[in-house]
Design brief:
With 152 residues, the chain is mainly alpha-helical. It folds into 2 domains: 3-57, Multidrug-efflux Transporter Regulator, Chain: A, Domain 2 (Orthogonal Bundle); 98-150, no CATH class. It has 6 helices and no strands. It has helices at residues 3-10, 14-22, 41-55, 60-72, 77-119, 134-150. The two termini are 33 Å apart.
């Protein structure tokens, strides 16, 4: 089948398939005399697997490693389990960091709401979130920047 049909069957774009070929996740398909690449059902299954692993948050290097393990088929469960355990630990760490960020944002929102309520009866003051300690905000900014850098 040609790339357009493989794209339809795998629910991907032609560009996504070519991208996977460039990243060596999908072997280059053999071409016809007319220079059309021909894909097989195995190629479509491989593309589906690649997407499943990416949907789980695995990066290209890990997807390639999982593809290699998948091709070996025998005695790979320990290695796959270790990769899944590492990914799960990373996800749980991000969840904890996001929970902390959620609590901090909710606290800052409460401060703003309190100040806005106070303004209805009194002279406006500066925003308590902006007036907060620079040291605390610098630390929070660094923590949030590191979290953003690690989010997929």
């Amino acid at each position: 089948m040609q790339i357009g049909e493989a794209a339809k069957l795998s629910a991907l774009t032609v560009d996504a398939i070519r991208f996977d070929e460039r990243r060596a996740l999908l072997p280059k398909a053999p071409g016809t005399a007319g220079r059309f690449r021909l894909y097989t059902a195995d190629d479509v299954a491989r593309l589906d697997f690649i997407r499943q692993m990416q949907d789980l948050g695995f990066l290209t290097t890990r997807v390639r490693q999982l593809l290699d393990l998948r091709e070996r088929r025998l005695d790979t469960c320990h290695e796959v389990r270790d990769l899944l355990k590492m990914k799960l630990a990373t996800v749980r760490s991000k969840i904890r960091e996001l929970g902390q960020l959620d609590r901090e944002l909710a606290a800052d929102l409460r401060k703003c709401n309190h100040q806005l309520k106070h303004r209805q009866k009194h002279t406006p003051r500066s925003c308590p979130v902006l007036a907060a300690s620079n040291g605390r905000k610098a630390t929070l900014h660094a923590d949030r920047s590191s979290l953003r850098a690690r989010l997929p």
